[in-house]
Amino acid sequence: MDLNLMRELSVATDSKIVLLILDGLGGLPMDPFGRTELEAANAPNLDALAARSDLGLSRPVAAGVSPGSGPGHLALFGYDPLEYEVGRGVLSALGVGVELGKNDLAARINFATKDESGRISDRRAGRIATQDAVKLVDLLNENVNLDGAEASITHEKEHRAVVVFRASGLSDKLSDTDPQRVNLEPLPVGPAEGAGDEARESADLANAFVEEANRVLADHHPANTVLLRGFGMLPALPKFDETYKLDAAAIAGYPMYKGLARLAGMQVLKEGEGIAGEFETLKNNWDSHDFFFIHVKATDAAGEDGNFERKSAVIEEVDALLPDLLDLGPAALAITGDHATPAKMKSHSWHGVPFLVSSEYTLPTAESFGERACAGGSLGAFPAQEIMGLLMGHALKLNRFGA
Question: Mind listing the pLDDT tens digit for each residue in 294-305?
């Protein structure tokens, strides 16, 4: 989608838009002739909404490419994820309220478990409790020493944290240490191909940090090591309000998605507890904004754990709350995910993401909300970058193009 075109055609109106994201919504059947997690869910409200909506399957990045959450959400907001690359560390830092300078380098931390052979046996250290991870963060901040640089660690949530390196001449053209699979050794940080001296020096700094962290955490099982990924520095992203003429608000329980919203220029609202709390926050702030981004994390977590039934149960929880959202009367409502996370694969995947958009101006084609129904929908398969254009059009917030 052309952001300049959106900037040219967008108009401010009183109509309201909701973008409801069930993270990792897309799925697969556990056997070839079964149902996906969404299709298996008892979701009568979603099915009824789908029966009066436009349906399709969105593609976050490119055919066959499994996206991270950052690129997946940037596409949802209308940004080309290949043009606007944002390191996961930047999003984590912004999400927990860290103010980044233009020369700061941020990286996402996973506390992890390394076995006696030096291989990673658990990339998330058993999803250690937040209170335990906070203690480890304090321990690292007190005991990690780097020559010529400062490393500041902030806890994010559960087994996740973020480290911000402050020194002169840093670069984010770096590779991750996370091997992405268990029973493999962590990787050394290296400079990207063709990167210069700044990247090589930054890689040395990051590797020194990992070495220090391993020393400090050696006796702390299961979190006896750290994995670094998503090195990034603060990018220049076109602001959401300037592009779409929207007063946008975000409701998300997980820090990274708050960071995405802040990076785009949205106001991050204080969310209530759980999914029901997020919907209550929407209701309480309905009159104050004309665009709401709501993020539900639990679908993705269940998919990554390979828990088909739990992922379906989260969808059912959202379904039960959907009437409260519809009662608010949004002019345009989209429900989708940032990517697929099939329980069968226990990871993000390249598969199409179910999408529906509801308004007064739709062409219904199915009677349920699921991957197969969406594949036959009026929108077909389309780039996720087009979602904001669809929402703006359905809410009558775009002027006509040309004479």
Answer: 999 999 999 999
Distance CA 41, CA 322 (A): 14
**Cβ contacts of residue 12 below 8 Å, gap of 6+?**
245, 246, 290, 397
Tokens 């069968």 sit on residue: 344
Number of domains in the chain: 2
pLDDT in tens, 165-180: 999 999 999 999 999 8
> In the chain, which residues have pLDDT < 50?
none
- What is the CA angle 289-392-311, rounded to 5? 80
Are 25 and 112 in a shared domain? no
- Give the sign of the dihedral formed by CA 362, CA 364, CA 367, CA 372: negative
12: containing domain: 3-86+237-394
Distances (CA, A) of 403 to 86, 205, 337, 399, 400: 38, 57, 36, 11, 8
**Distance (Å, whole) CA 132 – CA 297:** 21
